[in-house]
TrEMBL record:
GO terms for cellular component: cytosol. InterPro entries: Phosphatase_reg/MetRdx, TIP41-like. It comes from Ancylostoma caninum (Dog hookworm). Belongs to the TIP41 family. This is TIP41-like protein. It holds the Pfam family TIP41. GO terms for biological process: TOR signaling.
């Protein structure tokens, strides 16, 4: 997991990125039988806070692909979560307005 933070006079921005790579995991299914799977998954959470506002905007996104679908990429790209992120298709995105809990 990596976290990046940018603080400016009028706003702040946080990027949290979780990178997961699974290689040759054995999966058993009654319908499909037994097979091995390898895939990449990157989950990003971005927070944007603006001075003078009582809420933050949170964007959560999930990108995933099977390793077989990314074999055209060079090995150094596959080993770097930030580089492989650019080649992964977006699976899901959620945007939310987050308000702090009042005491």
């Amino acid at each position: 997991m990596s976290v990046r933070l940018r603080v400016m006079p009028d706003f702040f921005f946080v990027l949290m990125r979780f990178y997961l790579r699974i290689d040759r995991v054995l999966v058993r299914s009654r319908k499909k039988g037994t097979f091995k799977i390898s895939f990449f998954s990157v989950c990003d959470t971005r927070l944007l806070g603006d001075n003078g506002k009582d809420y933050m905007i949170r964007e959560w996104s999930l990108r995933e692909a099977k390793v077989a679908d990314l074999e055209h990429l060079p090995p150094e790209v596959l080993l770097d979560g930030n580089q492989v992120w650019e080649s992964l298709p977006i699976v899901e995105v959620k945007n939310e307005k987050v308000k702090p809990i009042s005491a």
